[in-house]
C-alpha cells in the first residue's frame, strides 16, 4: 500500500497528465475561498467564469435592447433548440425529442401522467424503494390521483435496480416503470438498455431519471429505445441553483402521449388566445408556461464545455477520480469502521461514491466547518461527488485526508 506521501505524489502526477486539466481554470474558484475540497458537484456544480459574462451580455444586449421583441426573435424556440443540443451532446437523442423547461419534479409528473394515461386498462406503476424521494412522491401522488397501484421493488441502498428484479415485478397490469439510471445514494449505474427491454416486453412504458447521469455518464436514450426521460441541469452541467430541467419524449409517442398541464405555450397557436386547448405537435406539447430564458443561460456554458471535452473523455476522468478516491478510502478509512456503499466495478459506478459510518452526520458537519464540502444522506452516508471538469486529484487527496483525520481521531477515543 502506498504511503501518504506517495499517494499525494500520485495525485500530482494524475493532475499533470490529465487531458481535461485546463477546464478547472474555467470555473469561478475564488482565491480567498474557505473551501478546501468541493465534493458536492453531483448536487450543485460550480459556476463557470463564462456564465457571468454570458448573462451580463444577454441582459445588456438582448433583453436590454430587444425587450419583448426577444420572444419573437428566438426565445420561444429555446426550449427545443437547447434541448436538441443537450440531446446530441449528452443524451444520445436525435433532434426533436428533448426540451428544456420546468423543474425535474414537474416534468416527471407530466411524463408519468402521460404514460399511465397511454396504457388504459393497466393499473400498476413499478418503482424501487431507494429511488430519489421526488420520484417516489410524485408517483404516489399519481397513483392516488388515478386510482392506480404502486408495486415496490426493494433495492439495496449500496447497489441499485437490476433487470432481473424488473423481470420479476412487471406483468400484464404494469403501465409504467420509473427508475434512476444512476442511483442517487450509491452511484450504481443501472443496465438501462436491458431494463427498458424487459419492461417493454411486458407491455409497459419506461421513464428514466437521468439527474445523476447527465454530464458525467454517457446516456443513449435512442439506442436504449427509452420511452421517456427527465433530469436536472444544475449538477454536472453547471446550470446553477434551480436551473431548468429537461424532458425526453421518444418520437414514437408524439401525437399520442398527452401531458396534463395545459398551458398557452403548449398550444398549437399560443398567440391566438382562442378557446379550447389544441396541443402543438411533437415534444413541444410537453410545455405549459413561459420558458425560463434567464435560467437557460448557464446551461449553455455548461454545454459548451461538455461538448468541447466530449462525454467519453469526461466519463474516463470520472472513473479515474473515483478510482483514486477508492484507493484513498482503502488506505485510510476502511480500518476505522467506514464501509463503502458504492460499486467497485467501474461499469456499474457513476460519478460519486458513498461512504457509511454511524456518526457521519456529525462528521459531515465538522467537514463543512473545515472547508471540505460533501453531502450527507440519511441515515449514515457521506457522498463524495467528483465533477470531472472541475475537480482535481489533489483536491480529492486534501478532502479525504481531512476525513481520515476526523475518522481516526474519533475511532481512538
From TrEMBL:
Keyword Hydrolase belongs to the record: yes
Segments crossing the lipid bilayer: none
Residue list for modification N6-(pyridoxal phosphate)lysine: 235
Pfam families reported for this sequence: KYNU_C
GO terms assigned for molecular function: kynureninase activity; pyridoxal phosphate binding
Keywords: Hydrolase, Pyridine nucleotide biosynthesis, Pyridoxal phosphate
Catalytic activity line of the entry: L-kynurenine + H2O = anthranilate + L-alanine + H(+); 3-hydroxy-L-kynurenine + H2O = 3-hydroxyanthranilate + L-alanine + H(+)
Subunit architecture: Homodimer.
Function: Catalyzes the cleavage of L-kynurenine (L-Kyn) and L-3-hydroxykynurenine (L-3OHKyn) into anthranilic acid (AA) and 3-hydroxyanthranilic acid (3-OHAA), respectively.
Protein name: Kynureninase
